Amino acid sequence: MPSAKQVIALLAGHLEGEEERVYTIALQIAASEARQGHVKTADQLRQLVDGARQRGLPRRATPRLAAATPILKPRADLDELVSVTRCDVRLGDMTLKDSIRQRLDKLVVQQQQRARLREFGQRPSARLLLVGPPGSGKTLTASALAGELHLPLYTVRLDAVLTRFMGESASKLRAVFDQIAQQRAVYLFDEFDAIGGKRGAGNDVGEIRRVLNSFLQFLEEANATDSLVVAATNHPELLDRALIRRFDEIIEYGLPDQAAIKAMVGKSLGRLGGRRIDWARITALAEGLSQAELARAADEAVKETILAGRKSVGTDDLLTSLSARKTMREAVADIFAE
To answer: What domains can be seen in the chain, in order of their start residue?
Structure first.
């Protein structure tokens, strides 16, 4: 028999006009029935899905957004726990290492072809851990994945989830995972080490341990909607090892090398990029800056060029903005070092 969550997801998919989502859940139920020896029931479900697909039942969504999941207002109990946005950014808009791009592309293909995987009793990768320094592109990656899959991005507000009252944090986390099971989307847990820290650490408290144990349990539950859960952290060394093993993919981001610096700054400059930029000087000065810092420095150079009435950004413009950005970084570092 299908679980209550599967019935809820099935009904939600029907009400939202998402035929493919309904088919996916139906095939998941069929696979479960087949494993229990109910071969006839499984065959009937598969035949119904195949017949519906062959008839090509029309979708209620508009042609341009046919593959998109509508943004639904979170339930009242989630208003303070998540924020939802529609993302237009794509992976092609990011400057990524080839190895990272290939892994993300594979994940996207699995999500797009999830119905076919379900037919063979497989599930798509749906649990992704992103690690790396601040500004390296982790949060932007979650947005780009949502854009590629035409899904809304739900950002979980961990500061609202975590409370000092016993059991309340786990209850709020339960509400978030109920939403994950009912509404297909990309769910981002940013600064994930806040709840994923090692159990038994010196600063560990009972409530945080309960939250982590609850997260481990919830993450293992069957996800009939194939929602994508993305966790991001700047401090992977703080994460509990049992938690790390629960993710399908772990992708590590680093600071850009010289080739990435040139590509990223050049893309940010757009049509205002000068043809005679001394990239050797630019990449030498920019070394050590994150992707976000490079983008902001390039934007500053563009704005100064526009306001000065010049037609293109020059080497000196970029050197000035990059120097200012490095000075800002050093000043912040000194503050936190005190």
So the answer is: 4-61 (no CATH), 67-252 (3.40.50.300), 258-337 (1.10.8.60)
